[in-house]
What does this fold into?
Amino acid sequence: MDRWPIRRFLQAQSRKPAAEPVDPARPFVLALDASGGPKVAALNDAARAEGIAAGERIADARAKARGLQMRDLDPQADAAALRRLALWATRYTPAVSAWNEDNGADGLFLDIAGASHLFDGEAALMTDLRRRLAGFGLPARLALADAPGAGWALARYAGAADIRVPSGGERAAVERLPIEALRLDPATRFSLRRLGLKRVGDLLDKPRAPLSRRFGASLLLRLDQILGRIPEPIDPVAAPPLYETARRFLDPIVAQSMVVRTARRLFEDLAPRLEQDGVGARRLRLMLYRVDGETFSVELGLAAPTRNATYIERLFDLRFDRLVGTIDPGFGFETIRLDAVAVEPLKPRQDTLSGSEGEAAGERAISLIDALSQRFGRDGLARPWPVASHIPERAVVARSDVESEPEWAPDEEAPPRPALLLPEAEPADVVAVVPEGPPRRFRWRGRIHRVAHAQGPERIAPEWWRRQKPQATRDYYIVEDEAGRRFWLFREGLYRETPEPRWFVHGLFA
It folds into this structure.
């Protein structure tokens, strides 16, 4: 069988401390509700020394260890904490996946291919990772291997704190591990042990066809995964970036101005790579790693692709102004990483003495959209979008995709429309010279307006194809009162349609 291309993986296993303080020198277990009573989901070394094992009943564990400390397992809180730890671990590599088992044994997969040289090699990276986890109060077992399955198995069952497997040495490293290292279901493990197959090495040289017939394809899959014969993709906790760069600080930074300035410098590092590929950044993600392990992510979406670092600095500054109070720098950020998670083609252009006024106006519009988006949020913006309808309140809708352009433009020869269209047409008392003539005087919102000039009517027939209550014909007038104020009024219904047509004010002109 051809060997698949494989990458080096770092698998870090850690157990999170309980919410309430416990004495680590005394036996401690996490309890999980199950049929037949609560069972041990996880335990510390002191409990293991008393003969307690994962999966046994809590009643039996209490009988073995006097003064046993116990807490209830909270899978949701554990998963949330593990995700936060995975986000923190992206300081080493963008590809980090959280692993959470039902029994509470959780850990992380880190794909460090192409990233270890940033930390002076694999050994230095593992040393730095262990030191920082210990500073958080998280004991861990680390295993480095070509295949994630081998790393998972060695971190849990090899018994050593740090293990580095040379490339191609997976078989020698895992053959003495128990069959639990293969991540098989309990029924398969029980059947294998009954046959005397207790270690991974007992299965490696057995004929594959009988194993597949007896135990199914899952056993062969796990054997191939632990040896790195087939790839095992991981699901990153965050979308993998197309381009990324990072900076680490000897002295953590706190001020917003320093964070924004760093974001600019990071984008300046990315810009040559973007230019080389003929693309510009459309969506950016700034990761802030605090010294105590807390991680913050700031997303920046752009209306159009760009490689302008000054522009990016301004937008990040606006975004942080909006996020005041939600990002606590604490004792400072020790690492900042910038990811370009979405890019689009960007044509070369001349920076100075550029072309048409229309092009410059379009760029100013995009700049305004981006600035407003960072200040008010993307959901706080909308643009009018024309709809194929002559009814004024249906002719335009608000759409949140402010970067898009309408597929068709309104008719430039259409009658003028008011600058302000009221949310709902408001009733008015109107006096007209003739029954279907223009208004001469009207009362609206308690005030009487005498009409000096009137223009119209513009007749709009109802949309008969809509399945709803039939509407009356509308006659719209543009009227100007003696004070110079201009209104948009309409009469609903013709005298041959209804004996009492009604008048409404629908909009105001500037």
